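Anyone able to model this chain together with adenosine monophosphate?
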Amino acid sequence: MMKWKMIAKRGLALTLVGLMLTGVGGSPGMRFASAQSVSGSQVQDRLSGVNFYFDTVVTLTLMGGTQDQLDAMWAACARYEALLSKTISTSDVARINKANGQPVTVDPETWEILRQAKTVSDASDHAFSMTIAPVVGMWDFVNGTHRMPTEEQRLAALPLIDDDALVLGEGDTVTLPAGMSIDLGGIAKGYIADQIAAMVAGKVQGAILNFGGNVYVVGAKADGSAFRVGIQDPASQLGATKAIATVRDASVVTSGIYERYFVEDGVWYHHILDPKTGLPADTDLASASIIHESSMLADAYATACIVLGSEKALTLLSQQGLDAMLITREGTVLTTDGFEEKYQLQLN
Ligand code: AMP
Ligand code: MG
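re: yes, here you go
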């Protein structure tokens, strides 16, 4: 129904990519409302659906859950898209961006995401900056136009990147100086993954929730064993895994310079920008994967790690007590202390 409509609109290729991204938790075994005789509240061994939200293919799989639960999760995705999308004019983010310096009252959830984004911005010396939007808008990593700013445009936009200038006030108000704008692309999916996971945690046998770079696993497989989540090999065009982590009730979030990029005159331009330059981060890292119960924190810190590069990233990760695996552009795997044992890491 809605799922079929979305897939027809976005094309089959996207669906297949989504399946590949599911990792090694098991084949998704999709059942698009196939079992007409099954009522929405009846517990089923396995239920799965694919949709396009947050500019990415989202695959939700429940084991020991109901269609009603799955439907409620999709409804939540739609609500978060409407709240947080930069391109939906009525969203909180769009309203903040066009408020011209006036305070805007937002949903308490938006306010909370902004509060958390500020803490990561502070902790990462602003490597993570949600006010990066003015320069993000000057680049096109998605539609194949290879648009990029001139040096003049880029330098003119840099003073507009300043997370400290975003004021979170009483009563869920947000004030952003005129000319500035925000982009929650580096953190929102994490927040959403946490909320969607919380909807079924403790209520289903297991769940694999895949939001592209953010995977949340809830519970365990039917036999009680933990899910195994693949971490992509940045060098592989086909999405082969570089490593497999064994995870329970946590999120695995990967930021990578291979996710959105273009190559022009032999130069690799990727979508994670350095707030200090407005250019794709000049980093030795190809990807950063963080495993944490908070997909939101993992998401924001993973983006920051790419900007910082391996050395500063490892310092930040240990300061914050985060578990992570970094892959350099040369293919070297770096992990935080105890990571391999804790997640029974299997390197390919
Ligand atoms: P992620 O895939 O989580 O690393 O987020 C990348 C997205 O976050 C980009 O597509 C931009 O929308 C936005 N972004 C880019 N650079 C930054 C940055 N330095 N800090 C915060 N968000 C960023
Ligand atoms: Mg991120």
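The first strand starts at residue 44 and ends at 53.
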